[in-house]
UniProtKB/TrEMBL annotation:
Catalyzes carboxymethyl transfer from carboxy-S-adenosyl-L-methionine (Cx-SAM) to 5-hydroxyuridine (ho5U) to form 5-carboxymethoxyuridine (cmo5U) at position 34 in tRNAs. Keywords: Methyltransferase, Transferase, tRNA processing. Homotetramer. It comes from Hafnia alvei FB1. Carboxy-S-adenosyl-L-methionine binds at K91, W105, K110, G130, I181, E182, M196, Y200, R315. The keyword Metal-binding does not apply. The gene is cmoB. This is tRNA U34 carboxymethyltransferase. Its EC number is 2.5.1.-. It catalyses: carboxy-S-adenosyl-L-methionine + 5-hydroxyuridine(34) in tRNA = 5-carboxymethoxyuridine(34) in tRNA + S-adenosyl-L-homocysteine + H(+).
């Protein structure tokens, strides 16, 4: 079973220590009551991976690890088999000892769009909400973060994260907890909070923005990346049953409307720092994610529209400060 004792020890003498009043009970209940039917298989794949201390580790330019001497063909084949047992891999890519996990998303491209516009991460304590496999947690550490905590209720992502951590020598600077933002108390302890690819999945987007704000220290920074539409500050798309084949998409505002939402929630210095159309090169099917991807979600005759006739995905990055 995945253990969280190292995380508890890490936060015990930190500004996050009051989280220990509720967190162990939450995670114990999760282990007891909420495990996915495939969790045992996923965990077994992680358990069978070797813990390797990399000779060379690069978290600044990507997430890559190398051994010296290089791993033999048989060892590489065994590691790849265990990693493929954790498919589909959506957020990445990862380069681990000559094994390239070619994920559905080029999350490195998103990171390159975000990083120039945010406060330097050097020495900061960071929360990444809806962190997926934890790819960006490692990039945050590579950018100098002191400590990076990710939360995501999807248990496959937890196992993917723990698999990567094991292959990075058991690095304890990043942790992933199988929680949703609504399960966090008001910690007010993070210097930077990221919410990337989450807001449109929330039935109440303003509540989500307040929840993010409650995790930040005074003058802490929110980095919000989400789907937007073109339009003025009054434009919001409320999709019907599906948007780009996703069922749980509730509100897609214009970037200007999102600025107003953030200001309404009490954020200041709100600014739109990037906006771009999601391309078929950035989100696509690979041999590590073999089900449908963006190409199948767009109108085959008009790629400016989804199959439902809505505007094709545009993603904006907005940075704001908690006063």
């Amino acid at each position: 079973m995945i253990e969280f004792g190292n995380f508890y020890q890490r936060i015990a003498n930190s500004p996050l220590s009051h989280w220990l009043e509720v967190l162990p009970a939450q995670l114990a209940a999760w282990q007891r009551e909420s495990l996915h039917g495939k969790f045992k298989d996923w965990f077994n794949a992680v358990d069978r991976l070797p813990e390797i201390t990399p000779h060379a580790l690069d978290l600044l330019h990507g997430v890559s690890a190398q051994a010296e001497p290089e791993l033999g063909p048989g060892q590489k084949e065994g590691i790849e088999k265990m990693l493929r047992a954790l498919m589909p891999w959506r957020k990445g890519p990862f380069d681990l000892y000559g094994i390239h996990i070619n994920t559905e998303w080029r999350s490195d491209w998103k990171w390159e769009r975000v990083l120039p516009h945010i406060s330097p991460l050097e020495g900061r304590t960071i929360l990444d909400v809806g962190c997926g496999s934890g790819y960006h947690l490692w990039r945050m550490i590579g950018a100098g973060a002191h400590f990076a905590v990710g939360i995501d209720p999807m248990q496959l992502f937890l196992c993917q994260f723990e698999a990567v951590r094991k292959l990075l020598g058991g690095d304890q600077r990043a942790h992933l907890l199988p929680l949703g933002i609504e399960q966090l108390p008001e910690l007010a302890a993070f210097d930077t909070v990221f919410s990337m690819g989450v807001l449109y999945h929330r039935r109440s987007p303003l509540d989500h923005l307040y929840q993010l704000k409650n995790q930040l220290v005074k003058d802490g920074e929110l980095v919000l990346e989400t789907l937007v539409i073109e339009g003025d500050e009054n434009q919001v798309l409320v999709p019907g049953d599906r948007y780009a084949q996703m069922r749980n998409v509730y509100f897609i505002p214009s970037a200007k409307a999102l600025v107003k939402w953030l200001e309404k929630c009490g954020f200041v210095d709100v600014r739109i720092v990037d906006s771009c159309v999601t391309t078929l090169d950035e989100q696509r099917r690979t041999d590590w994610m073999i089900s449908e991807s963006l190409a199948e979600f767009l109108d085959p005759n008009d790629q400016t529209k989804t199959v439902e006739g809505y505007p094709a995905p545009i993603r904006a990055v907005i940075v704001a400060r908690k006063p």
